Amino acid sequence: MKSASVMPRRGIGHTFWQQRYLMILTLPAVIWLIIFSYFPMYGVIIAFQDYNPIQGFIRSPWLGWDNYSELFNDPTFISSLNTTLKISIYKLLFGFPAPIILALLLNEIRSARFKKLVQSLTYLPYFVSWVLVAGFMYTLLSPETGILTQLLAFVGLIDSNTMVMGNTNTFMSLVVISDIWKNIGWNSIIFLAAIAGIDTQLYEAAVVDGAGRFKRIWYITLPALKPTIIILLIFSVGGLINSNFDQMYVLQNSMTQDAANVLSIYAYKSGIILGRFSYGTAVGLFQSVVAFVMVLGANYTSRKLTEESLF
Question: Is the CB of residue 54 less than 8 Å from the CB of residue 263?
């Protein structure tokens, strides 16, 4: 019996030549990624230096771990780390389920026009800058003319002269609520796409068996969304050490600076305002390394518990 002929193994050069037109199309994106994402990574070396722009990367004095020794002994850094983790955990607890719930509710809407209207209204805030969102919030929550402030005072929740945006006790709640309001519609797109890929025959069979809407959601929709939810949750865990600089910077004021002093604000003040570029870079590198480790840990835990993971 003759052995089956074996196809000759082609090299990577031949594969590139066969797909040369696709490679040419992707070339600008690859060049952009190298220039703006990989090449600047060389700059993290200044986290271990006393960087001087005149001396440059090579000639600046080498400090080793001195920046990190100062970092971990700085009470302001510890306070900023605690604030960052608190805000990020609240965003994860309340902000992560919000787009899932919205996607499930939108999927149950039968009127196509009303569904598109709700989608448009929830998507729109994502395209509004945080500067406009902050101005909008200050207008609504103004103690003199704010409609929302007057409504809260009318129902007896606050005093009529309360400065909501200047209250450290309410600042964290405003940060979480505004983040959910701005991103809930956009983040729900991923879950709506996953729901659209579910076989409709499963729902038809469930209806025949007498399953109501809630049971169809619980036993069909949510299990189908499980891989998507887990993958996005892993990414979200990696983002716990980071914070939205734009949001925190525009929402803070003279009365809420301590409550808004997250790691990104701390790095900005240390590196840009005070001109300590090496120290600010050390803070940023610390965030990146911790986020990477947290992603690996979340991925490992997810793979062990649910058999779903990034890799």
Answer: no
- Higher per-residue confidence, 286 vs 258: 286
Q: For residue 40, how many other CB atoms are within 10 A of its CB?
A: 9
| pLDDT beyond 80 at 83 | yes
DSSP the chain: -PPPPPPPPPPHHHHHHHTHHHHHHHHHHHHHHIIIIIGGGGGGGGGGB---TTTHHHHSPB-TTHHHHHHHT-HHHHHHHHHHHHHHHHIIIIITHHHHHHHHHHHH---HHHHHHHHHHHHGGGGS-HHHHHHHHHHHT-TTT-HHHHHHHHTTSS-TT--GGG-HHHHHHHHHHHHHHHHHHHHHHHHHHHHHTS-HHHHHHHHHTT--HHHHIIIIIHHHHHHHHHHHHHHHHHTTT---HHHHHHH--TTSTTTT--HHHHHHIIIIIS--HHHHHHHHHHHHHHHHHHHHHHHHHHHHHHS----
Reading the block at residue 294, the tokens are 């947290």
The pLDDT of residue 2 is 47
What residues pair up with 49 in beta bridges, in sequence order? 62
Residue 209, pLDDT score: 87
55-306, CATH topology level: MetI-like fold (1.10.3720)
pLDDT score of 60 more than 60: yes
Domain boundaries, the chain: 55-306
The arithmetic mean of pLDDT across residues 271-281, rounded, is: 91
Q: Which residue has the higher pLDDT, 156 or 113?
A: 113
Contact 280, 268 (CB under 8 A): yes
- What whole-number distance in Å separates Cα of residue 107 and Cα of residue 87? 30
Residue burial 238-256, b: 16+ Cβ < 10 Å; e: rest: bbbbbbbeebbbbbbeeeb
